[in-house]
Structure formats: C-alpha cells, structure tokens
Amino acid sequence: MKKPTRALGWAMGVSLMAIPLLGITFAQGDPAVSWDKRAAAASLDNRITWWMSWPSAARDHETFCVSCHTALPYALARPSLRGALNEHGPSPVEQRLVDNVVKRVRMWHDVEPFYPDQRNGLPKTSESRGTESILNAVVLAGRDAEAGVLSDDARKAFANLWALQMRNGDLAGAWAWLNFRYEPWEAPGSPYYGATLAALAVGEAPGGYASGGDVQDNLRLLKTYLAKHFEEQHLLNRMMLLWASTKLTGVVTPEQRDAIVGAVLARQGDDGGWATASLGRWQRVDGTPLETGSDGYATGLVTFVLEQAAPTSTRQQVQRGLQWLAQHQDKQTGRWLAFSLNKKRDPTSDPGQFMNDAATAYATLALTSH
How many domains does the chain have? Predict the structure, then answer.
C-alpha cells in the first residue's frame, strides 16, 4: 500500500492561503527529469493520425469527432513540444485537427451533432452540442493565445458555447454534456468537468475576452455553478477547476485552493506519482479491481496543475512527480500508460489505448512546463 506524502506546510497545519502562488520553476536540463521529447511527439502524432482516420471517429461533411481522451489532450499538449523540436508552427497533423474544428464551427448549423438523437437516443443531440461547443472553444482559444489575437472563428465558437449555456435548473451556468457512463469524462458527473473546460477556454482567450461586457452575465452564471457544486466533486474534477483558476479569476476561493492542494498531496504515492483510482470513487462495471499504482494520466495532470497553481512550498512534491514521469516513459513507444476506470480493457484494443493517449498528453504538458 502506498504511503501518502504531504507538503511540509500542509502537514504542519500552515494555511496555503498565505503563500503566494508564484508558479514552480526548475533548472533546465535536470538529469532527474530527462525524457525523450521527440518520441513523445511521435507517439502523440501517431495516435491522433490514427484517430482522425478511424471509421468510428468519422462524422459528416468529412469531419471527425473531437474526443476528450485523444483529440482534446493532443490539442492541449502538442504545441508545448514545438520549441524542443525546432518547429516554427503547427505540425501538419496538428493543423489538420485545428482545421477540423474550424470547419465544424463555421458549419455549426449544417453539421450533425456528434451523436444525434435519431441514432443514439435522447438527449444525445443536446449533450453532443454542449460538449462540442466547449471543446471547440478550448482548442481555438488555445491556438489564438499563441498569436495574442482572438480570431473570428474563436469568437464564433464562443458564441455557439454561450448560446447553449443552461439558464435554469440544477445545471444553470453549465452545459449539457455527453453521458455514456464512461468515467471520468463522459459520465453523470462530467458536466462539471465540461464547465471547468469552459472556464479554461474563456481565461485562455487573448485580447481581454474574459473582461468583455457581453460575457459577464454568462461568466457569473458559470462561476455560480462551479461554486454551488464544488463540494460534490471528486478530486479529479477539482484539479481541473484549479487549473481553470490559473486562467480565469474568481472560480476558486483561497479555502478551496487549500483543500484541493492538500487533498491531492495527501494522495501522492511513495514512488512520487499519483493513481487515477485515488482521485475519485469509481467502480468498474465488470467488477474487476482498479489499478491502484501510479499512472501517467493522474501523475501528468496533477503535476502539471500543481506547477501552475500550487505554492512554491510544494516544489519537492512536484519534483518527485516529474521524476516519476521521466522514469516511466515507455522507451519503445514514447508514451505513458494509464488504465480504464470503466472495465478491464485489452491494452492492445482501440479503447484500451485511450487512457494512454490522455496520459501521454498530460505527462508532456507537465514535463514541458517545468
């Protein structure tokens, strides 16, 4: 059994609220966190190329689905490798993903939802539209952040997003979100995950988009939803909220930040990594036990978010997470491994590799951010 480790300040009962969030930096070239960037890029590129040509991912008008497990993590992580690879812009495969998003944004009223009601049953059309509107905004806001100017396509993506924001009921401030009972991204609790992504997109959008008068009512609704449902969330969703708070102000209180950081540090293993199974209460539908050892997805995500949002007193814990990632990159494929929360999957099958796609992306984000 893994023994949790904690930041010194937390273990001594010192509030993290008093410690400025300066971001954590490490010396470049640290041999303890040496890893193969080119192999990671090749793994990411190979998997997204496969995804874009996989018949099950194909959608109408020669587009493809932007998935939470493969396409979105790729879009978030792949640009971080350009400097190390001496790339001066998006790779061809990366550009193809962005072009796909732009096409669907421009044809918003002409393309079918990812999962229409007519084929998948109610309420999949509304879930698909809500989910896609957020994913499109995340991808295009991240793309435009590099240029420092919000494009017309990104503005259209945000217009689509705000038009679908719920105004009443338990989801007021959030969006309908795909629910296939697939943890952790397409499950009953996943609308909160989607709302954190929406906050991330707004905060990432350049040109002061988040301070514009025309989005303030929407942002108030979103922030109210995030605050109202905070206590219900598993730690993985809370980590996503913490990440969003580094881009958009007012989505976490200092007390909530303390709680998130303290809870996740308490779950760090003796080996320096984190297990996805430890970040929530999940049970597989086939009754098989969850893998409880550290994995690439949890360690990558947690380490990356702590780098962005945690106080400098957590430097040692973050360093250990980075070391775990450096030591666990697969030398043959360049990827990191993670495991399904839903069932025991054949690791060579298509669905059996989806968690690895997310793991490789978030491990890359963490390692390129230090």
Answer: 1
